[in-house]
Design goal:
The chain is mainly alpha-helical. The chain has 17 helices and no strands. The chain has a single domain, classed as Amino acid/polyamine transporter I (Up-down Bundle). α5 crosses α15, α12 crosses α13 and α15 packs antiparallel against α16. The chain is globular, with a radius of gyration of 21 Å.
């Protein structure tokens, strides 16, 4: 690399950017559309799934925050896994997370096509995917500050819309708004609160995890934060509040408004709910919001995957071209372009298997996120000792080591839950095959080119 080529990412992200990046990474079509599949699988008891998902997310985020505050680097937890468990662990973690976040935006393209179908039933989905891929690639190339500002406003729209949905739905449930069919009794009047039993809860968990996947994106942004030791703990607290309020409460309202057996992925259950509460005009407004949510998550996905590829390349696992930054904008241009190209996977799968494309992509992405969360938990003890010895343990996870073990046990239970239903076993098999292929690549090629970084 020449002397004129920058090697450090620009520090253009502020606390409000990081907060909304975490929210934007979470609240996407995985929630606005995937919630329909989760509700249909678990029934009203899906509330418990989202509560469990929120708890696991909080625990993992606390451990990631502790490490990212002490050592803010691009790629974050991939680097931490490398330091604590060796280059194989770091490579498999980064590789799997990169795949998960690549699959996620591909599914968001499918979701966006579904949302647009409400307004333009004759527009091909691949045309929308092409336009979105080009526009959001340009946004990420322009520079990190512009990316952060755009993500802030896109995420703000989603937050405001969900707050309004919760208030409107609560008014209908309590009788303040004139909707006699919307009551708390809807949670139990169709085969009870848990119609599918424990298997239904396990069956919904991968889509729930997929909807939570993205909060860890703030770890990949730590190096580009101007004040990570101040910003990241603030982001953790604000993200927790929004997860509890915006997810659990909105799902509770949703299962009271929309009959759980009619929910699915042919349309957003939030759009269906607003059609019940406020008619076509309200449904169209919500459809605009969920479309914005899909765009926001694609935006965050391209950002996170390009930084992970940048980090893997900087460590020598991939060609050095992905570790080069644009001379003026200081963004990993090649990594952004490669990550953006994968958006078209969703288009191909939508053509080949339109009935299952979104659910399969979402579930596989959820597997990747959950594996990355597990590696974050396993990296934390070693990183804590290292940071403490260096005097860089600036923020501590409350309740450790109990916190870490609780998180690991919960994640293990969710993984084992895949064995309880047929499609879950296929997802687990596909995930294990992916981990095997990543390991083969590492031992055959990656290990020889790995450059240890102190």
């Amino acid at each position: 690399m020449s002397d004129t080529t920058p090697s450090e990412l620009t520090k253009g992200l502020k606390a409000r950017h990081l907060t909304m990046m975490a929210i934007g990474g979470v609240i996407g079509a995985g929630f606005f559309l995937g919630a329909g599949a989760a509700i249909n699988t678990a029934g009203p008891a899906v509330i418990l799934c989202y509560l469990l998902g929120g708890i696991v997310t909080l625990l993992v985020m606390m451990m990631l925050t502790e490490m990212a505050v002490g050592m803010p680097v691009a790629g974050s937890f991939q680097k931490y896994a490398t330091i604590t468990m060796g280059p194989w662990a770091g490579f498999v973690t980064g590789w799997t997370y990169w795949l998960a976040f690549l699959i996620g935006p591909a599914s968001e393209c499918i979701a966006a096509g579904t949302f647009l179908n409400l307004w333009f039933p004759h527009i091909p989905i691949w045309v929308f995917c092409l336009v979105v891929a080009i526009l959001l690639t340009i946004v990420n190339i322009i520079g990190v500050t512009f990316f952060g500002e755009m993500e802030f406003w896109l995420s703000l729209i989603k937050v405001v819309a969900l707050v309004a949905f919760i208030i409107w739905g609560a008014a209908a449930i309590t009788g303040i708004a004139p909707h006699t069919d919307v009551t708390l009794a809807n949670m139990t009047n169709d085969r009870g609160f848990m119609p599918a039993g424990i298997v239904g809860l396990f069956g919904a968990m991968m889509m729930v995890i997929f909807s939570f996947g993205g909060t860890e994106a703030i770890g990949t942004a730590a190096e580009e934060s101007a004040h990570p030791e101040q910003d990241l703990p603030k982001v953790l607290r604000s993200t927790l509040l929004r997860i509890i309020v915006l997810y659990v409460l909105s799902i509770a309202v949703l299962v009271c408004v929309v009959p759980w057996a009619t929910a699915g992925t042919s349309s957003s259950p939030f759009v269906d709910a607003m059609d019940i509460l406020g008619g076509p005009a309200a449904a169209n407004i919500m459809n605009f919001v969920v479309l914005t949510a899909a765009l926001s998550c694609i935006d965050t996905g391209v950002y996170a995957t390009s930084r992970m590829l940048f980090s893997l390349s900087r460590d020598g696992f991939f060609p050095s071209v992905f570790a080069k930054l644009h001379p003026t904008r200081k963004v990993p241009l090649a990594a952004i372009l490669v990550s953006s190209c994968m958006l078209f996977v969703g288009v191909i799968l939508m053509v080949l298997a339109p009935d299952f494309a979104y659910l399969w992509l979402g579930s596989l992405s959820g597997f990747g996120f959950l594996f990355a969360w597990l590696m974050i938990c396993l990296s934390e003890p070693g990183m804590r000792k290292r940071l403490e010895a260096q005097g860089r343990l600036l923020w501590k996870v409350p309740g450790n080591p109990i916190t870490q073990w609780v998180a690991v046990i919960l994640i293990a239970v969710i993984f084992l839950g895949l064995l309880t239903y047929e499609s879950g076993r296929y997802i687990l098999l596909a995930g294990l095959i992916w981990l095997g292929l990543a390991s083969v690549y590492y031992f055959a090629i990656g290990r020889r080119t790995y450059k240890a970084q102190e």
